[in-house]
Amino acid sequence: MSVPNLLLLSSSRVHGHGYLEHARAQLENLFKASNVKTVLFVPYALRDHDKYTALVRNAIAPWGYDVEGLHTKENRGQALRDAQALFVGGGNTFVLLRTLYELQLLEPIREQVLQRGMPYVGSSAGTNVATSSIHTTNDMPVAHPPSFEALGLVPFNINPHYLETDPNSEHKGETRDERIAEFVAYHCRPVLGLREGTSVRVEGNKATLLGDRNAKLFQSDGGSKELPPQADLSFLLSKD
């Protein structure tokens, strides 16, 4: 029985770095451990699939990896079965999830990742759809998926690009923390606020916070706490 092998990035871009550059070591550790040479990219979170795939290809080709776009495959199911690794890119989470439903890709992806151990990389929207649901995305609902329930590769929610409220701000409207707390109050499900440059590495029943910044955990009981880099997040993988 294979085990989940995931890298869930808050974002593909970080100030002061080129596209995906900040996560190069994390990506290469994942790919080299599974002898990955070619990455199957899912570009459905942005409108121009060819351009998006080329962006990712140009970023990681110098590292020695090829990139193929899932949208170019006549038989997407077979492409997933043949894939050495899957990278689901960021963009609009609602558009991405709607497309995954329309193309009937959720179950094939779950099978490859959870049963066959195919490495999965998500960034932003790609991280959102890897979790239990997309309720905690920051995106505008420009599309209408048939459900907010997502791939469920991990049994909790993530808020990518998490940014706490500036205490010196004069803004008095609803804050990010208040919106996440509202979700927790209704669903009693923990949410991990991933700041830019951070990610979650999942290897079987072990999960670790990567990067050089804290993450903020909104607990299912309504509390919250800061978690330092390299924190053990394995407790979040329990479905109890």
Automatic annotation (TrEMBL):
<keyword id="KW-0378">Hydrolase</keyword>
<feature type="region of interest" description="Disordered">
    <location>
        <begin position="218"/>
        <end position="240"/>
    </location>
</feature>
<comment type="similarity">
    <text>Belongs to the peptidase S51 family.</text>
</comment>
<keyword id="KW-0645">Protease</keyword>
<dbReference type="GO" id="GO:0008236">
    <property type="term" value="F:serine-type peptidase activity"/>
</dbReference>
<keyword id="KW-0720">Serine protease</keyword>
<dbReference type="GO" id="GO:0005737">
    <property type="term" value="C:cytoplasm"/>
</dbReference>
<dbReference type="GO" id="GO:0006508">
    <property type="term" value="P:proteolysis"/>
</dbReference>
<dbReference type="InterPro" id="IPR005320">
    <property type="entry name" value="Peptidase_S51"/>
</dbReference>
<dbReference type="InterPro" id="IPR029062">
    <property type="entry name" value="Class_I_gatase-like"/>
</dbReference>
<protein>
    <recommendedName>
        <fullName>dipeptidase E</fullName>
        <ecNumber>3.4.13.21</ecNumber>
    </recommendedName>
</protein>
<dbReference type="GO" id="GO:0016805">
    <property type="term" value="F:dipeptidase activity"/>
</dbReference>
<keyword id="KW-0963">Cytoplasm</keyword>
<dbReference type="Pfam" id="PF03575">
    <property type="entry name" value="Peptidase_S51"/>
</dbReference>
<comment type="function">
    <text>Hydrolyzes dipeptides containing N-terminal aspartate residues.</text>
</comment>
<keyword id="KW-0224">Dipeptidase</keyword>
